Write a sequence for this structure.
């Protein structure tokens, strides 16, 4: 597992800029992304869950690529539980709402990116409004 990054993920925009300036994408990332793309082409009526295994492998490879992409999915519940326990009741409810809102945003981003990839893999379907 990649080390936990203590910096803001807002640095992703810098990473994208660095990539555009010539940072090469590791072959493993390219291979895993191609596997996801191939799976999209195979299943015309796919939904995001049909790519779960391929996407998780790609996500893990991206996470390991650079510390700025590090996160600790396994440790997060324990950390949240500890922070939650240290808060008064009203702040606990606020924290829960913030965490749930963030989880919904991540799920929406995941679904949106899936829809973009699916549209790119099946351009004819989009022309017909399917």
């Amino acid at each position: 597992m990649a080390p936990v990054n203590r910096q803001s993920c807002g640095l992703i925009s810098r990473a994208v800029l660095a990539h555009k300036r010539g940072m090469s994408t590791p072959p493993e990332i390219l291979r895993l992304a191609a596997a996801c793309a191939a799976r999209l082409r195979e299943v015309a009526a796919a939904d995001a869950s049909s790519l779960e295994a391929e996407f998780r492998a790609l996500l893990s490879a991206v996470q390991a690529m650079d510390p700025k992409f590090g996160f600790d999915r396994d440790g997060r519940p324990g950390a949240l539980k500890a922070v939650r326990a240290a808060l008064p009741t009203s702040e606990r409810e606020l924290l829960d709402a913030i965490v749930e809102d963030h989880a919904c945003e991540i799920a929406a981003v995941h679904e949106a990116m899936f829809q973009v990839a699916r549209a790119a893999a099946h351009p004819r379907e989009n022309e017909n409004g399917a």
Summary: The chain has a mean pLDDT of 76. The radius of gyration is 18 Å.
